[in-house]
Amino acid sequence: MAQAHILGYPRIGDKRQLKRALERYWQGEIDQTQLQAVGSELRHRHWQQQKQAGLDYVTVGDFAWYDHVLATSLLLGVVPKRHRKETIDLQTLFDIARGSQDGCCSAAASDMTKWFNTNYHYLVPEFEQYQKFELSWTQLFDEVEEAQAAGHRVKVSLLGPLTYLWLGRYDGEKLRLLPELLSTYQRLLAKLKQQQVQWVQIEEPILALELPQEWQNAFIPAYQQLHGQCKLLLTTYFDGLGSHWSWLEQLAVDGIHLDLVAGDVDDQQLLGLPRHWVISLGIVNGRNVWAADLAKWLARLSPLQQQLGFRLWLGSSCSLLHAPVDLELETELTDEHRQRFAFAKQKLDELVLLKRALAGESEAIAACQQRSQRLAAKAPAPVPANTQAVESAVRPLSYAERSPQQQLNLPLLPTTTIGSFPQTNAIRATRADFKAGRIAETEYRLQIQSHIAEAIQRQQEIGLDVLVHGEAERNDMVEYFAEHLQGFALTQFGWVQSYGSRCVKPAIVVDNISRPEAITTSWTGYAQSLTDKPVKGMLTGPVTIMAWSFPREDLSRQQITEQIALALREEVGDLQRSGARIIQIDEPAIREGLPLKRSQWGDYLDWAVGSFKLAASSALPQTQIHTHMCYSEFNDILPAVAALDADVITIETARSEMALLDAFGEFDYPNGIGPGVYDIHSPNIPSEQAITTLLKKALQHIPAERLWVNPDCGLKTRNWQQTEAALTVMVQAASALRRQLKHEQKA
Question: Which fold would CATH assign to domain 387-746?
Fold first, then answer.
């Protein structure tokens, strides 16, 4: 019989218990012992759910207090000097992730970026010139012991050495660090062997990339060195192996896991793998909520089962970290949708049902067929976007021609924010009361207007030049628009971890998308009525709405994105007619959506850029279009970023100390740029000197006439005390530098 397992389970809890515990700990409301107890309870619950579902192994090592790459760094003793102390403990982890403050001294958090092509974030490892690796953090070994003591059959999830090295930052040639890193991995695997761990799922997702030859060459000797301790299940996901198939069978491993959802594999390729290998196939989509077509998989895998026998393993395509936890909690979804969805807990059942069907159980075979019939019967008819509108989506004038017409009377180095302001308990209570029917719409609107008025007043007192309404009415930058567009389904508890305690609740694209009425104009118009300064209209871009939702699987990402862009084009037109002079269309996900294989980038960038331009195409030359992109590495897609033709782009650069601007300078980016001057993910308040230093670095690459001053990202996760303090410093730094530049011009 085939074996069933998953690559990982959501760690946050079905009602975000981990999020709440982390935030209470950071606020000093609970101690470390209480926090640890919440983590232990969640781990035991999740292991028990896997066991009860009928999986053959429970996965250990997938739990993390912030993110699994950071946990790996602590495991291997990779701690930046500024956070190093005698022993590595849980506070060390949080200092690296969030920054630390000790009296007048502060230590910046490590850089954070996207985990491959997902909306999950990881803390980038920082390697030193003479980096030493040593086993320094016992969390993994403790959790193995914990699971075994509970009577579970354990499979360990471990980030592989080559992927870990690839993800890190190092001034020299990273592969020079590999020999010592492998020695540490040998000790790690030997310790797991002592704990009687049989299988280690060693994850090398960089195999989905088109790797440089020297990195490909490193795999075979690396795994020869690691072989001989625990059995190694080489694991990759998010795409197929491509050209790596040519040397794959030379690896000294005991099995391989392949993601068949993201990249199908020919049966002959699978049967040609070494005969002693386990072949684990990811057939349940770990990145979407749609129920698997089990009848299709049964037909696809039955011939393989006959030839592979016990060597066939069934698994999730990737970790279920990227899926919501439990569909059973969703009491407000229609019966039709509930029958078509499967969250993480339900995906366990799908795997076990398919395993039973492959073993020939007639009841399981019938259940697979019935499920697939229900899915096919309820699928909506696909309707493509308006091709003619997409092809003609171009603003009539160039940036150089538009810019003089955008009469905004702004000073040199104009200051602004990215869009959101603190989501206070009062704001959340107002939205909750309205949603639950405890207050009428009239009262709701009055309360939200009072929060907008407060945000405008605070910004004017701080001295910002371009204001925002603060987004008090928005629960999330994507979910809010999904609520007002037709074609989406929304959940109550469909939370997914983005990083640390930050969770998002993606909407689900269930039908064709359209905009029945204006979405943002009344709130933006009210804010503008309170001030003579320009107030930005705030929209989430079409690529980001698509990428941060669970898409339909019967339409391409391009088709879905173009449908959204057509709806947003209408919204841009309405905002403009209501008096908005600046409209920001945020696209933080545009880099994340790139195919993992560089050879496939061109097609994606063509339609992604085209969709943004389609959304902005109703803007008049007098309307200034902004966009925001955060935690993305743009160096290699700068032509596409420029092709967006936004009048101003704001980007995350504070944690990297403006390093990204080297590429913008070399490329000679032609439009306005607002590089982030402080990290909003840290509670630390920046100094005026620190912001001034970053702005002077920016001026080395960007003319002052095109430089904007803003934080890295939105401020919804900060409180007002932190927000006002940081923005006041930012405005003071910009004002002082503005005076200095004017003085130098006169001289």
Answer: TIM Barrel (3.20.20)
Rounded CA Rg of the chain:
26
Binding residue per annotation — 705?
no
pLDDT digit string, tens, across residues 348-399: 999 999 999 999 999 999 999 999 998 887 677 766 656 666 666 778 899 9
- Render the burial of 563-600: b for 16+ CB within 10 Å, e for the rest: bbbbbbbbbbbbbbeeebbbbbbbbbbbbbbbbbeeee
Residue showing tokens 């799922």? 201
- Distance (Å, rounded) from C-alpha 536 to C-alpha 538? 6
pLDDT tier for residue 1 given thresholds of 50, 70 and 90? confident
List % helix, strand, coil for the chain (3-state, nearest 5): 45, 15, 40
Phi, psi (degrees; rounded to nearest 5) at 695: -65, -40
Residue type, position 435, single letter: K
> Under a CB-based contact definition with an 8 Å cutoff, are residues 260 and 282 in contact?
yes
CA distances from residue 474 to 470, 479, 480, 490, 519 in whole angstroms, order as listed: 9, 8, 5, 14, 11
Instruction: Establish whether 204 is an annotated binding residue.
Output: no
* pLDDT computed for residue 631 by the predictor: 58
Catalytic residue among 5, 244, 681, 701: 681
- In SS3 terms, 499-567 reads as ECCEEECCCEEEEEEECCCCCCHHHHHHHHCCCCCCECEEEECHHHHHHCCECCCCCCHHHHHHHHHHH
pLDDT value for 388: 63
Q: Where are the alpha helices (DSSP H) in 292-424?
A: 294-308, 335-340, 344-358, 362-377, 387-391, 399-402
Place of tokens 């603190």: 422
- Known binding residue 318? Answer is no
Render pLDDT for 518-528 as a digit per residue (tens, 0 to 9): 999 999 999 99
Dihedral pair phi/psi, residue 112, rounded to 5°: -125, 140
DSSP strand pairing (486-489 vs 508-514): antiparallel
Helix segments in 318-361, DSSP class H: 335-340, 344-358
User: DSSP state, 378?
Assistant: T
Q: Is the pLDDT of residue 632 over 60?
A: no
H-helix or E-strand spanning residue 258: strand 255-259
pTM above 0.85, yes or no: yes
Q: Is 337 annotated in the active site?
A: no
Dihedral angle, C-alpha 695, 699, 701, 707, nearest 10 °: 80
Tokens for 146? 């914990």
Three-state secondary-structure class, residue 113: strand
Q: How far is CA 199 from the centre of its chain?
A: 29
Answer positive or negative: Cα dihedral of 633, 635, 637, 640: positive
44 among the known binding-site residues?
Answer: no
Contact 326, 9 (CB under 8 A): no
For residues 738 and 411, the answer to whether their CB atoms sit within 8 Å is yes
Query: What type of residue is 116?
Result: F
Q: Which residues pair with 232 in a beta bridge?
A: 200
| Per-residue model confidence as pLDDT tens digits over 296-328 | 999 999 999 999 999 999 999 999 999 999 999
Alpha helices in 535-676 (DSSP H): 542-547, 557-577, 601-616, 638-643, 661-667
Domains of the chain, by residue range, sit at 387-746
**507 φψ region: left (φ > 0), alpha (ψ -120 to 50), beta (else):** beta
Q: Which two tokens stand for residue 10?
A: 């959501």
420 a known binding residue?
yes
pLDDT at 394: 79
Counting every residue written for the chain, the total comes to 747
